[in-house]
């Protein structure tokens, strides 16, 4: 949406001058630490910086090109919620099988295993690991070779499909070594996928199985409906109809509620297309994600200057792992280097990387692996945070904060009564804890969380959480990410650590919309959180809780005004000046939507229709994120 009359708060009329960016004492450096406005990066040599910068600005690398500096001064946007990892960084087979398939096809269609095979195979063979991309980035910024095309994806998908039709796992290692309990065999699953898209069975005399070819997969992931293969049903062995989530609102509510009608074949096809398009997007290099993001989440007179780069750790819940060279350590090293390379290039985005913390990993490292306190993954990440806030640090691993993902199966407040069923990834958790006692898992997760939160409070470290009932990994844990449980944790922190700086927490995907009857409504959560944020007579606050409305379906559908009016009404009634609500995109997940490029403009248009936010647009779209990233003074470590 173009600025009107030069008055748009997304334009140059924001209350803060654009050229000022982030103040030098704010941790604006990618990966943490203060950002100096001039001079050469302390982390890389001047000659290397200049050669690297020249390559980046000149487009010398294929998928690390940055848009050239704008000829006019642009207003700054802050994005509280973004992801730039690729498929190599995810336990992609486990995530597909235990999260995406149940979300889109709750009753487990015959073609489920075929989808896992194909997505795992293309992810393994097309995605650069973090270490591979780091090595190429280190060569004067060059990322040699071409980013995978849709044709590349279609070729690998067809190859995996052919292998699967031979009743062989396309990937020999554990990345795709899955079976689907009570489902068809591998060959039958791939045949079911072929039938779904209209591939006819050959005659009994030739005994050749129906299959999809490269052109079919290319048409499946294309957005032009005219290029898609036939959806003509084939009898008598049609796949069973399955409930399927609509791609536009699958994030907000999981599919498969009891009242959902059976999905048609066309709906099943669209859900498969959604998953395969997601897989193709996730095969792109990390640099390409950033470049596409900068072109998509933009307005004519504004650009993103600061974004939180959220990394995740799902491995232990999904009984899978990222590709070799893409563990959390390698990912953080990549993004630290990326920040160093781009730090002094004019107008570049500042990425504030948050490493994924999983309390189940920490519990298993302590209990099952017998690691000493200083040898755990959490201990390493604590060092990365301290390095990230030191502007003179030359450490190769530097971060700004932590990301937690309760939808995997844990609550942020208490897990004493956690029951892990023997389903999905819970089967492997039971097997790993059999000798130590599965009943101990909840208590040990709580012990890990106590250690984690104590560090974050004492060291003034920001925490980010996914707080929407989506991407649930274990059956029965739909309420685990509820924002209400985070308020319980905050209240416990206030009691346990009096006088310490308030915990900085961002509750992601907060959209005032709930699929399940949780412990309290989102309206109640926001009111309680704003009360905790309110300073007392001495100016002290119990908490610093922020909320982002990333990937909100109402904004995508043009009804963001309803959301923002609800948020404004609660802020006014609580005496809050709009200091806790932030814009977020949820890139790269948003990228799979056909109208992703409209999200920022739609959010801004909605804000302009609400008087409260029109007067506070700079807070909503920029300043509140800077506030969240800025440590408060107190007896804990300061920056």
What features would you describe in this structure?
By secondary structure, the chain is α/β, with parallel strands linked by helices. The chain folds into 2 domains: 18-83 and 296-629, TIM Barrel; 89-282, no CATH class. It has 22 helices and 8 strands. The chain has an 8-stranded parallel sheet with strand order 1-2-3-4-5-6-7-8, sandwiched between helices. Strand 5 (463-466), helix 16 (483-496) and strand 6 (504-508) form a beta-alpha-beta unit. Helix 3 packs across helix 6. It is globular and about 75 Å long. The relative contact order is 0.14.
Q: How many strand units? A: 8
Poorly predicted runs:
1-63, 139-144, 173-180, 202-208, 225-252, 254-259
With strands numbered from the N-terminus, the spatial order across the biggest sheet is 1-2-3-4-5-6-7-8
Would you tell me the overall average pLDDT?
A: 81
Q: In this structure, how is the largest beta sheet organized? A: 8 strands, parallel
Report the span from N to C terminus.
38 Å
Category from helices, strands and their pairing: alpha/beta
CATH class of the largest domain: Alpha Beta
Could you say what the CATH topology of the largest domain is called? Answer: TIM Barrel
Beta-strand share of residues:
5-15%
From the 3D coordinates, which CATH architecture of the largest domain would you assign?
Answer: Alpha-Beta Barrel
Tell me the overall shape: globular
């Amino acid at each position: 949406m173009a600025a009107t009359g030069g008055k748009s708060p997304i334009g140059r009329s924001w209350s803060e001058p654009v050229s000022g960016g982030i103040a030098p004492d704010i941790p604006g450096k990618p990966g943490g630490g203060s950002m100096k406005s001039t001079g050469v990066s302390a982390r890389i040599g001047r000659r290397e910086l200049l050669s690297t910068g020249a390559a980046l600005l000149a487009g010398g690398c294929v998928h690390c090109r940055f848009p050239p500096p704008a000829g006019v001064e642009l207003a700054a946007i802050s994005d509280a919620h973004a992801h730039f990892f690729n498929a190599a960084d995810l336990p992609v087979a486990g995530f597909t099988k235990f999260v995406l398939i149940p979300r889109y096809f709750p009753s487990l269609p015959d073609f489920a295993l075929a989808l896992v095979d194909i997505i795992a195979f293309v992810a393994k063979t097309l995605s650069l690991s973090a270490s591979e991309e780091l090595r190429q980035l280190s060569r004067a910024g060059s990322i040699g070779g071409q980013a995978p095309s849709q044709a590349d994806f279609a070729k690998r998908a067809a190859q995996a499909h052919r292998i699967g039709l031979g009743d062989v796992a396309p990937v020999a290692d554990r990345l795709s070594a899955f079976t689907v309990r009570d489902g068809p065999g591998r060959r039958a699953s791939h045949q079911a996928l072929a039938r779904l898209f209209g591939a006819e069975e050959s005659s009994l005399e030739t005994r050749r199985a129906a299959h999809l070819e490269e052109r079919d997969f290319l048409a499946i992931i294309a957005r032009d409906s005219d290029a898609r293969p036939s959806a003509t049903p084939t009898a008598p062995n049609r796949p069973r109809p399955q409930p399927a989530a609509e791609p536009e609102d699958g994030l907000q509510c999981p599919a498969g509620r009891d009242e959902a009608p059976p999905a048609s074949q066309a709906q099943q096809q669209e859900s498969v297309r959604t998953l395969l398009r997601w897989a193709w997007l996730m095969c792109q290099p990390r640099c390409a994600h950033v470049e596409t993001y900068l072109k998509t989440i933009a307005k004519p007179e504004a650009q993103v200057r600061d974004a939180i780069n959220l990394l995740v750790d799902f491995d232990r819940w999904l009984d899978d792992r990222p590709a070799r060279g893409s563990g959390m350590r390698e990912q953080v090293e990549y993004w630290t280097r990326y920040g160093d390379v781009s730090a002094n290039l004019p107008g570049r985005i500042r990425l504030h990387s948050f490493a994924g913390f999983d309390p189940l990993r920490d519990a298993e490292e302590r209990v099952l692996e017998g690691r000493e306190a200083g040898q755990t993954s959490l201990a390493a990440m604590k060092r990365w945070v301290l390095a990230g806030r030191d502007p003179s640090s030359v450490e190769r691993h530097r971060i700004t904060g932590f990301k937690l993902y309760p939808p995997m199966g844990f609550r942020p407040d208490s897990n004493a009564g956690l029951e892990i069923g023997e389903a999905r990834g819970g089967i492997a958790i039971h097997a790993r804890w059999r000798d130590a006692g599965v009943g101990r898992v909840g208590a040990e997760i709580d012990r890990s969380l106590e250690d984690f939160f104590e560090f974050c409070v004492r060291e003034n470290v920001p925490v980010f959480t996914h707080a929407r009932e989506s991407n649930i990994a274990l059956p029965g844990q739909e309420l685990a990410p509820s924002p209400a449980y985070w308020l319980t944790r905050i209240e416990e922190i206030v009691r346990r650590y009096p006088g310490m700086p308030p915990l900085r927490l961002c509750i992601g995907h907060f959209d005032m919309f709930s699929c399940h009857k949780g412990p309290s409504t989102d309206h109640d959560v926001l009111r309680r959180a704003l009360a905790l944020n309110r300073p007392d007579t001495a100016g002290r606050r119990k908490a610093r809780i922020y909320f982002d409305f990333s990937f909100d379906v109402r904004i995508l559908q043009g009804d963001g005004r309803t959301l923002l009016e609800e948020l404004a009404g609660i802020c006014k009634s609580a005496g809050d000046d709009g200091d806790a609500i932030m814009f977020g995109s949820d890139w790269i997940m948003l990228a799979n939507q056909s109208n992703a490029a409209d999200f920022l403009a739609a959010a801004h248009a909605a804000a302009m229709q609400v008087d409260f936010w029109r007067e506070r647009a700079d807070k909503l779209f920029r300043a509140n994120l800077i506030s969240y990233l800025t440590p408060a003074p107190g007896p804990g470590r300061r920056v």
